[in-house]
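Hi P.,

Sorry for the delay on this. The queue was packed all week, but I finally got your sequence through. Input first:
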Amino acid sequence: MDLDSLNVRAFWEDAVAAVPDHPFLVWEDRPVSYLEFDDRANRAATVWSEAGVRKGDRVVFMVGNSPDFLTAWFGLIKIGAVISAVNTGFRREEAAYQIRHCDPVAVLVDAAHADVAGPIAEGLNRPVFHLGPHPAYTDFLAAAAAVRPDVADVELNGADLISLIYTSGTTGPSKGVMQTHRNFVLTGHGYRYWLGIGHDDRLYVCMPYFHINSQAYSTMGAIGARATIVLSPRFSASRFWPEVRRHRVTHFNFVGAMTAILSRREPDPEDGDNVVRIAYGGTKLPREMQSDVERRFGLKVISGFGMSETTFGMIEDIAGERRPGSIGKPRQHPDPTVPRNQARLVDDDGNDVAEGEIGELLLRNPAMASGYFRDPDRSAETFRDGWLHTGDLLRRDEDGFYFFVDRKKDIIRRRGENISSGEVERTLAAHPDVAHAAVVAVPSELLDDEVLAYLIPRPNRTIDPAALLEWAFERLAPFKVPRYVRIVSEFPRTGSHKVRKEQLRADWRDPDLYDREQAVQAAGER
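Then the structure:
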């Protein structure tokens, strides 16, 4: 296989030629064929071209899940431009960093997010396109309906960028992970193979499109299999199974919290009334929960490990042994001529550790990001000597099965979102009553993490946790706002005065701990 020639435009257009009348997308019960969607994408490409967008240019999207997101994105793919999708939960200050950093030539917004991203783009003197009528911004959909679907040929190769995925760092601002056309095509090939997806399968997509999961796994996997995407605006526990049943979904992806929420709903005689075969998630479910989900809903849960920096991590074998607690073995491309995905576990000095010992996971494969956008120092630190240093701690048994242990990086994973503890700490420390803040992950009943903020008050000040968190909601996306607050007089520290966060995590439970969710529930019961 010629890896240098791989590009998503050709990958997509080959699928259109092969199955023009097959449904590519289902939205609100309306199917859209591969050919019809291709016409929409061509019109979108023409709009972008006429707006001056060229190959390699970045375009920011702050848009919720919708067919219009996909149409506009595939228009960029057609002309070789690069999407940078902003987390739709971000407030203006959070969105501003990404928009300014990626230096877009244009911004696309929908009605729900125009007030956040629009003014930022105006401040940068960038054109703003709106999905639908807007008094100040160009109506992208009307423009697409008025143009001819003629797209000029653009020379694309595997190393060309297709997407900037911004992911939280342990320190400093978010990193723009540079994903390439080659990575996405290889993922499309691999995903259908790893999960046994065929032409007649239907993939339910309710995870947001600013994530690598929906962009690379679900969408590229569906194209690779000539299958169908059933698109939902967002995850909803009440709508999930009715939509899955109605559309005869066969595959869906999940984060840990999703599965925990679904498993905790009251049992229903219709639980097994579905045709889902595979649920794939990057979170390894506890053994009892996995067995319950599989038995109750009549499906198979497959666990894996992936990152924004590489879609080729680990995955369980759908047809082979699934060892309890394991996230499987390194994912491989189905074509044996494609270089193998290699994994190592190393100690702090870079030496390989023995079987059964814990080490940092290093990966080397042909589907790795090309670095971080405009960040050569962090790129050099993470991508060293051809190996991706994941910052995650794993162990490997004697049969080559890998087990996730912990995050070496100080990242909190909550509701499927990565949270930089440093960012939350800086925000809380800006409150006039707070002298110092230390934020850590603590266990959640929904499998991911909960956020706990240890706070030291300023002299002669008193911290009101409820008021502080209301203040934080105005400055942070809701998923970043801590659930727990603990007021302390000092932090445990190392000899070099660093906060001993491992001790904070171990000693987190306290009778005086403020729990926002309990407080809200108690207020509602009064």
